[in-house]
Amino acid sequence: MNTKELTDKYIMNTYGRFDLTLVKGDGCILYDENGKKYIDFASGIAVNNLGYNNHAINSAVINQIKKLIHVSNYFYTEPQALLAEKLCKNSFADKVFFCNSGAESVEGAIKLARIYAKKFSKRGYKVIAMENSFHGRTFGALSATGQDKYHKGFEPLLEGFTHVKFNDFSAVEKLINGAGGKAGNGKDYCAVIVEPVQGEGGVNIADKGYIKSLRDLTAENDVALIFDEVQVGLGRTGKLFAYMNYGVEPDVMTLAKPLAGGLPIGAVLAKDKIAKAFEPGNHASTFGGGPLITAAANAFIDEITKEDFLDEVLKTGNYIKSKLDELKLDFSEFIKDVRNIGLIGAIEFYEIKSKDIAVKLIEEGFLTTAVQDKILRLTPPLIIKKGDVDLLIESIVNILNGHYNK
Q1: Model-level pTM?
Q2: Which residues have CB under 8 Å from 369's CB, separation 6+?
Q3: Is 70 exceeded by the pLDDT of residue 403?
Q4: Distance between CA atoms of 198 and 46, rounded to whole angstroms?
Q5: What is the mean pLDDT of residues 224-228?
Q6: Rounded (10°) CA dihedral 131, 137, 142, 148
Q7: Which pLDDT band holds residue 185 (cuts at 50, 70, 90)?
Q8: DSSP strand E in 112-271: where?
Q9: CB within 8 Å of 271: residues ≥ 6 apart
Q10: Helix/strand number for the chain, H first, E second
Q11: Domain chopping of the chain, boundaries
Q12: Is 335 helix (H, G, I), strand (E, B) or coil?
């Protein structure tokens, strides 16, 4: 049996896979089993921010694997300590908790917010989350997620999550202020969790005024403000962290996807005020922050914090934005909207199915991501070149002209 047949026979049917078997990658290029190459505008769902076969990450992994792959968190390891220092020194945070995935980081953030409320702010346990959000597949993260399609079949979800419209500050204000309309009356709520950019929701970008108002309101009421940056942190928006686009700082931030260059990691970053609520026994992770994974993550952080790296990301992101704006203008009968910040972008169609476009782009040698029903998402490696962008846009133009034009 070939790889596809083995997969279909032995692996649970949880993914709608494309008929494509990938075997190796280099830079922004992936290769299938027949040697055909594909320019990657998906990055393994915004994971491979430095592309494939990155020398710095490879070297870090090879060097560490010869020394120590895993040891219990009952002991200290240098790679973990160094990574925590780098994350804190380059962000708002004072402390870090390491885990293995984005969903786990969200679970950790929710637990931290609740135990902080219980010990210090004396607020309730409820969390305000946003409609159209995505926070993960585990039960706490799934309950925070504001999309019904992910909930179906798993009800009842965990109670204690209230979903309001994204970018609607008044909806959050009413809940936190309570029925009386005065600050402090909505004592049921201990946290607000929000993605600065809703990735799985279709690249919906939070307004600056909205984020600033959330920060002011939560600070006034001692409510933890959690930014989920699992998909859009670590350079994706052209800033090291997405919150840096807004001129405010959260109390807690979740990270994962690109942090270890493709190896599994998650992190909860927090200010001391909130982090102090955790004590030994409150939370843990057997594999979280292991020496092999954190060695890779240290190499990743060193690369993206090099001088001018993020400046180049911004330049390329602005170029993509200009090309998407042109595309929308030229195909206004098909394209409802385009959205972009840094190197995460979306093309939203009126009627065309995004998966149909993604399949046709695979045939043309490009990998993208279909999110929602009619939104094509672009999350290329942060090292993508303008020439690759031009090739992608040219292929989209040809597809729209050849298959959809009247």
Answers
A1: 0.97
A2: 42, 45, 358, 376, 377, 378, 379
A3: no
A4: 13
A5: 99
A6: 50
A7: low
A8: 126-130, 161-164, 189-194, 197-198, 204-205, 224-228, 252-255, 266-270
A9: 92, 93, 94, 95, 249, 251, 252
A10: 14, 17
A11: 3-53+307-404, 56-304
A12: strand
Residue 96's beta-bridge partner residues? Answer: 269
Name the one residue in this structure whose structure tokens are 């909860």. Answer: 268
Structure confidence by residue, pLDDT tens digits, 318-362:
999 999 999 999 999 999 999 999 999 999 999 999 999 999 999
Which residue(s) pair with 12 in the sheet? none
Mean pLDDT of 179-204: 84
Closest CA to 374 of 339, 350, 395, 398: 350
Contact criterion met (CB below 8 Å) for 63 and 277? no
d(CA 252, CA 111): 11
Peptide bond into 156 cis (omega under 30): yes
Specify the CATH number of the domain 56-304. Answer: 3.40.640.10
Task: Report d(CA 195, CA 261) in Å as an integer.
Answer: 22
How far apart CA 206 and CA 64 sit, in angstroms, is 39
CATH superfamily of domain region 3-53+307-404: Aspartate Aminotransferase, domain 1 (3.90.1150.10)
